[in-house]
């Protein structure tokens, strides 16, 4: 029987329960625009994508789903990004239930914070930042939609709120059929979305450091230093690569002026960090640009936030290990700090598991579909990393392939949390050690 005292097991079960509830709600005739019941697979895929804050879709969100259906989707990716245990604990506090040890452990596991910090403070930070960023972003977008695009105020408010919540939760769902392609030249739409995505992708531990220590770099934790530095490096790499590779592509940046090219290159450098909005036709990207997106999507954003992927810290821990081995150093580390052996093994385990799952899923889908292998691989990485970008093949996949993508989205959102946490909490020292013998490597 499931123990409520074990959040490592409880959290995946609750995410599955939320997916199931979302599937039931989206299967109601009230949820579709034409009043018919959505097929179970369509409802399941959409619910999983929303709860896993991914953004992959098999139907046109504003056309297929009614206002009720879109409201359910918004609620699902808000709770999915905010965290089920975090939300439940918050509601309990609001109801006067208090904040016990079980709540502290569940909140820390869900937010990937195992250092024994104040979980109540973490909860307050998560709530305050979420409310502030989503509120400010929604207000800016709604004002722009109302004044520059002549949308009625209720419609402007809805589109602004939907995109703000989707952006901060790195969900990638849009209330427009073409995502944000209709706003390619509008920085007042693209920039607020980018800022919300970046803030959420940094993760709440970094936000905690920023709140406590401001810009006093020396007082930041090693995690925050790696996450911020890595984020800047990856965003800069993505921007430069996309701008250079797509500069003359007639189907993407080619027809734009220099300013619009820079804006959209920056936007698409941010989105593979697990957000999923697109202002350009991803299916028209050059192959080399797709490869850059593979790299950015697989890494993802910061830990303990709404981003997916193997996480920035995981990648840079592995990079430091390779660098130390190349330079024949005894220890691996960054910023004058060395990593513990357990952290190195966790980073390696998470990366190998992620690569194995993506390889297996890609192989299976390629065996049941005649679609190009590159497009299938893009879809699988996007699903596992909870990105939501697509070359446009999602709706063309057979049912079994969609179920595989559902599994990837779920594992990408919940599995990496539980695997990393289980590795951190489950270390047990044997009372003995086997004799050492080294196989040939390489």
TrEMBL record:
It is a multi-pass membrane protein. The keyword RNA-binding does not apply. GO terms for molecular function: monoatomic cation transmembrane transporter activity. GO terms for cellular component: plasma membrane. It comes from the Bacteria. This is ATPase. The chain crosses the membrane at residues 43-65, 72-95, 121-143, 188-206, 226-245, 294-327, 347-367, 401-425. One of its GO terms (biological process) is metal ion transport. It is found in: Cell membrane. The keyword rRNA-binding does not apply. Keywords: Cell membrane, Ion transport, Membrane, Transmembrane, Transmembrane helix, Transport.
